[in-house]
Amino acid sequence: MKTFEKIEMHYTALRDLWLEHWLNNVIFTPQWWILVLTFVIPYIIWWKLVDKSRLRDIVLIGLQAALISYLLDQIGTALALWIYPYSLTPLEREVFDPADFSAIPVSYMLIFQYFSKWKKYFLALVVFALIASYGAGSFYQWLGIYKLENWKHIYSAILYIMLGLFMKWLLSKIKSREAAE
């Protein structure tokens, strides 16, 4: 049990250090404001564009995207594949990345809404994956918000595409099962 007590002691010290860093170096910086905008603006855009008649399916895609993105982000940070020197909240830095709960799900919801045929949906996913990975990823790196450790943008692009394909496939399976009942 002594090993766990050491871990707990180091974890407490790390948590305190993170809070000190966040209070002194993160909150109200330009990077922090960009994170605020990253969280808020996509939902404003989404609400203006969303097809309210298909809201249930679209929101289901968004919830799947948020959950899976969050889990993959947790795994990636735990494995030190990437880190976030800036965060929106003083909670542990991996707990809340605005992209996982806003920009990424909103992007998938809009792609799902506007591209119903598989071929066009796939092409839209590829474009999104490249823009998100190389464009937004590089921009957030340049700002110091996101730092790649043992990861490359192409891996993110592939994951974005696979995630989008999986979510559309899963929703189609759910809907076909629902129709069969």
Gap between N and C termini = 53 Å
Main beta sheet strand tally, sense and closure: 2 strands, antiparallel
Classification by helices and strands: mainly alpha
Average pLDDT metric: 93
Binned strand content: under 5%
What is the β-strand count? Answer: 2
Q: Shape, please? A: globular
Order of strands side by side in the largest beta sheet? 1-2
Whole-angstrom Rg: 18 Å
Number of helices: 6
| H/E topology pattern | HHHEHHEH
State the share of residues found in helices, binned by percent.
Answer: over 70%
Number of domain units: 1
Compact summary:
The chain is mostly helical.
Essential attributes:
single chain, 181 residues, mainly alpha, two-stranded antiparallel ribbon, 2 strands, globular
Question: What would your notes on this structure say?
Answer:
It is a single chain. With about 180 residues, the protein is mainly α. Helix content is about 75%, strand content about 0%. It has one domain (about 30-180). Strands 1-2 form a two-stranded antiparallel sheet. The longest helix is centred in the C-terminal third of the chain and has 28 residues, at about 155-180.
Show the helix and strand layout.
Blueprint: H1 2-26, H2 30-49, H3 55-78, E1 82-83, H4 98-114, H5 118-143, E2 147-148, H6 153-180
